[in-house]
Design goal:
232 residues; single chain; 5-stranded mixed sheet; 5 helices; elongated; alpha+beta; 57% helix
């Protein structure tokens, strides 16, 4: 009887020790994951803080360009758009709705339209306006489409932006009819380099989702697709 009690007690004690070790190990893993997540968020904020002045500097260059060409009326219109855009860009939100992202892109494209004369469209699937995404997610790609895609085409240039629902995925696309580029070469633009880093960090934070970037370029234009898997 005593022997049986000792055996059961020993087994019970061993079980408690193992349970304690497992809990401690799991707690350590959770702490490490939380630290990694916080570090990724800090790095993400750092990238966003670099994207904002990069974008603002390019916009100011646009105003200067119009004034140098003595297009005062267009420069004033550009400046009015720039003022609203600046308030939205400097509003340090991690996530914004697709409706807000559309407004940001609309303002930016209208500004650049005054300089280059291209046409553009922004289309989206139904019932997506309130879906939230990381702020200024598409802006660097749209900026690249303007600067390196259609800036030389004037009125013949066209940019199309789309927010598409594909089952549970959200697909964001930017298409231009520029001359394309070699997708195998490393991106020269700071905005695209920062965006690549940002997507890698977003993938380390949103473990249940994936941010998948695909670039297709030909002599007839470039299409950039960013898929947010299981986002809807």
């Amino acid at each position: 009887m005593i022997y049986t009690f000792i055996v059961i007690s020993s087994i019970g004690l061993a079980f408690l020790v193992i349970l304690y070790i497992i809990k401690k190990r799991n707690k350590k893993k959770l702490t490490e994951k939380e630290q990694q997540r916080n570090t990724a968020k800090l790095q993400l904020n750092s990238i966003r803080s670099q994207l904002n002045p990069h974008f603002l500097f390019n916009a100011l260059s646009g105003i200067q360009n119009l004034m140098n060409k003595n297009e005062i009326d267009n420069a004033n219109k550009y400046l009015a758009k720039f003022a609203r855009l600046t308030r939205n860009v400097l509003d340090d939100k991690e996530l914004i709705s697709l409706a807000q992202e559309k407004t940001l892109l609309d303002d930016y494209l209208q500004m650049e339209q005054l300089r280059f004369g291209f046409t553009y469209e922004i289309n989206h699937s139904e019932n997506l306006d309130n879906i939230e995404i990381p702020s200024m997610l598409l802006q660097p790609f749209v900026e690249n489409a303007v600067k390196h895609g259609i800036s030389q085409k004037a009125a013949d240039g066209k940019i199309m932006v789309a927010f598409i629902k594909q089952e549970n995925d959200l697909v964001l696309t930017v298409t231009d009819n520029g001359n394309g580029f070699d997708t195998k070469k490393r991106h020269d633009g700071l905005g695209l380099q920062l965006s690549d880093s940002r997507i890698a960090l977003l993938n380390s934070i949103y473990k249940e989702n994936r941010f998948i970037l695909a670039i297709q370029a030909t002599a007839k234009g470039t299409k950039i697709s960013l898929t947010l898997t299981d986002w809807l």
